[in-house]
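Reviewer 2 asked us to include a model.

Predict the structure of this chain.
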Amino acid sequence: MFSPEIQHRIDDVCACLKTKVVEKDDPHVCQRLQDRMAAYGVPGVSIAVIHHGAIEWAQGFGVVQLGGGPVTPETLFQAGSISKPVAAMAALHLVEQGKLALDSDVNQALTSWKIPASAVAPGAVVTLRELLNHTAGLTVHGFPGYAAGAPIPTLVQVLDGEKPANTAAVRLEAAPGSRWKYSGGGYTVVQQLLLDISHQPFPKLMHDTVLSPIGMTRSTYEQPLPTELRSGAATPYKADGVPVEGGFHVYPEMAAAGLWTTPTDLARYAIEIQRSLRGDANRVLSAEMTKQMLVAGQGSHGLGLPIGGTPENPFFSHGGIDEGFEAVLAAYQDSGDGAVIMTNARGGQLLATEILRSIASVYGWPDFHPIIRTSVKVDPAILATYTGVYELTPTLSIAITLEHGQLMSQATHQRKLQLFPESRSKFFTKVVDAQLEFLATDAGHISHLILHQNGNDMRGERKQ
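Predicted model (structure tokens):
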């Protein structure tokens, strides 16, 4: 199927997955893809790799459901929030057609619903640019979707938080442009805006303006997934290996979370951006609009896509989580390299980022490499003094246990993680870049811990 050279690269990717953090001189740092799938309880994975501006390979691993057939490059997955940058491209296409403006009041264009006035931002004007780059000051981070058989709200009901909607109303909570805060609610406003402007069903608008021109033939925003496509879709799983009850969730918030697709199709989307930047293929956006899309503003976010890397070698990326589906997309703007990984289980995004690190290593990318830390030996008797439950917020606690001489950490509703000591009182995890530091009273009793993660420190009081 593949040339020996490409097959060798595929084998190398599958042979050496690494966690976010690795121990210095760890002889077992490389782990096989199949072992990591088992560790995370992920039945199926689909991968597409972009090299020199083309899809070099696409391959499925594992099964669409336990006891079922194999994942193939054609297997459909829910893209979660990767739906947003694809929807953003449609909005920018309408801007180029003169049907929308990036910096005008969206309430002037909205007809079916309008952003209500807010006491926190009197006289506020929200623009499409702010909606796309998450600076509009709107509420609602994400959407859980609707389980099989549950009543599905209209989009206006979602925006107003009215039953049967299962999320709060989308409202202004800060002055537009004053800060960056991720808002799936903002993209739901974008969806309503596109509906009001185009007078078309959202899936048809997306098909005609983005999916079809790019050649994303295995992609749709239709919710729920049409019956004739369901046999080609993966089954979503929870973290405990149990299928999501009733199967996949339905997302009327299509722009924010409703895309069904494959890594190959999302790779085509990434390649379209790479080529549009150069003026080689501008099937949806001009080179100038594509450049605007990738200008990093607050939160290092462009118009739909986070921007990373260096000024000399920037990349765009996005993650996606729907119920039982998790995915990652990353691609360099200039080198023509990138990858998309999609999975069918909760926790699959951690696996996907490990796969991305392996691809980065095999293909010589400058980013996505593990952090190296040095561990030390700590007496188990000292470790035992740290066990207990630490409350960080009323809804978030961390339970610390000692199991077979190893300190373990488990945050509320999250999987258990092993802690590795880098000093007598400071520990790190491997699957995420987080450190826990245990602190004592003057009398020597452990009273609280500090969670160091993403540049923030959170204090957790010991409760038991």
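The mean pLDDT is 96. The domain at 77-363 is CATH 3.40.710.10 (Beta-lactamase). We have added this to the supplementary material.
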